[in-house]
Amino acid sequence: MMDMQVTGIKKDILKISTSYFSLYISGNTQNKKYNATNNNKNVSGHIKVDTRLSDLKKYTINSFGELEENDTSFMVPSFFEDGIYDLYLESNTNDKYELYHHSKEIRENMSYRGRSVYGAFKFNGDIGYSTFYIRKNNEDVLTFTIQVFPTKLDYMDDYNEILKDINEEVTSLVFDFVNKTFSNVNIIDVERQTEVEFISILHKIYESLDKYIRRIEKHPKHGVLSEYNLKDRDKSKRIAIKETIKHLRKNSSLKVVEIRKHTTIDIYENQYVKYMIKRILNKIKDVKQNIKKSKNEDNEFYKVLSNYENKLKHHLKGFFSNISDINNKKSMTLVFKMASGYKEVYYYYNLLSKGLDICEGLYNISNKKLWNLYEIWCYLKINSIIKELGYIPRNSSFIQVNSNGLTLSVLQNTQSKLIYENKLGEKLELWYNKAYYGLPTTNQRPDTVLCLKGDKTKDRVYLFDAKYRIFIDNNGEIGPMEEDINVMHRYRDAIVSENKKEEYFKYSTFGAYVMFPCSDEKKFEEHRFYKSIERVNIGAIPMLPGSNSLMKKQIAKIIGESYIEAVNNNPIFDEEGDYYKFKNKNVMIVNVKDEKHLNVYREHRFYHIPKSSLSKVKLGVEYLAFYQPQNKFGKDSGICYYAKIKDSYTYKRGSCIELECDNGKEKSIYIRFDLEEFEPISKISTVEYGVRNVMYTTLYLLKNATTIHELSINNRKEIEVYKILKKISNDKNLPLEKHQDGYKFQGNYIKVYNNDIRINNELVKINELEDRLLNISLN
Question: What pLDDT is attached to residue 583?
Fold first, then answer.
């Protein structure tokens, strides 16, 4: 995942000397990417050495690239995530030393020869403080800690913001899940949930939890204990017959076994309630520690948790001080399903413990490699953008319930997905680590997959691959690695779907984009790999905290496009394909009088129309599509069905036995079409008017159009023009009319003829069209 481009001149960066040994680390004094991104300016690196050895001296590189003695804990930033460094340790005595580092790779790259230790190493995306241990006879004699800087993002701003964003997005999804799962608890929704939401849940349910704990304390369940004692027969109140017989068989005494029974509250059910209280307290303690680390004890949430902690401890010191700790967990008894107090405490415990289990792992995210962290952040940021665009998460494999609480699959790098729906019922899927198996060539696994759901043949797939890598060209311009763009081409070619019925494969991927760390979005808009998105729908989009407006723009475009518009963005396989899309108008669209007629046509598989309305059937027509007028079908208006023509002929209207004939029309000549099975299609909606009599379109447009307008499109250029017209019409809430072979907008006629665009017969270039139309709408 990491690129290792070496730049600069190798020099000694750090020297540590004692009377026993000297240690050197050398590497490149300049990092091209670090300098080009202009990150981490005016920031000092950290250096700390701990030892009891004598004559310690440390030397660090200065701004002139020279080693100089340094008795502070600061140094010029010299260690970088993608750098390659050489380490050399030479003993001044006969003692042998060993180097230890938490990274197994760094340890295994060290070699030992005589009294020397040497090797080359890299940090592989680990940033922040990195500690090396020098050991003799398995004991640490010296440790030194250096600071490793990222080269593609700002350490102080971007890195911390990524951690914060991931924390907030994960917690938002988790508490949305908790809210839906335990829907009878009224957890208030807020616009932007953060990691403190679990405290809101605790705050919301605590009074109820406390109420039912007190109810148990006032009306606890009891058990009966039997106590056996040897007594004289005349002094015994109640003899245990079986136990007495056993005693007499073994003993000659005349004493009997007396049984006395008394009640106790130290039973399993009360022991389990105590266990639940103690476990909640442990969870509160853990979360308090996390808050203390990231903030301090003066934090308001820390104080809130302390308050609840003290209240729960009060219960343990009171009633539950007389209850034993649980020895082993048995299966749940009916008490926890039926008994008042017990069932409620058990319910709130389940809710609260799952909520707290979630938060336990959120603070460990920073332990991940930076490239992995960036990949997760990109996925969650796309999720955030989709929600901003009006889509609501419905369900998710992102969060999974297990016996320990909730598992967050995205943090474990396993396949997961979020499902969204907007107010119109349109659905999206956002996959993380989606695996494509069984492809004709090789299996594929892109980072993020966005799927717009249509019917089975109209799903649109867009791939996003996070690459924590950048390339600096000779002019200092920042862009993605060329090989990563090539991976996007591979994805689009490799990920195909099979139509088993007709035995062919089709491309499933409509667009593929590299996400890479770059903050200057404005400058990148001029980069060839951004402009390539508009041309072939493959390219790159910058992604960093505060720099994701281009991603939001692209996702809004993807979501807002119709299927036909989306297909138009992709290269064509051959020109013949466009003929069948736009020129081969083999579908006649006809009007249906009302629902009764439609049902008869579907049942008997025919359609007829007065010959006076249709003098002859256009040559090449193979299909009929049925327009359901708005005045008769209401919300069900539009085109929902088509059928293949088996035969056509003329007859007198009175000869039709399926539909009654109006008086006086018996001898009227009709054209009748005998049809095959009616096939449903995704509804094609009316825009400003429907189909007045008949109109013609292609089978491709019929199956992929979303509006009546799109049925009349003649070429790819017209799709581009229609997209611009539709956008302005929607943004400005202005009517757009289909008129003959063009469109009417604000009294102006826009037409595409032989790939030329004309407004009122004046030639206009495609890149000028939007501005011209906006001026028209303003005037």
Answer: 82
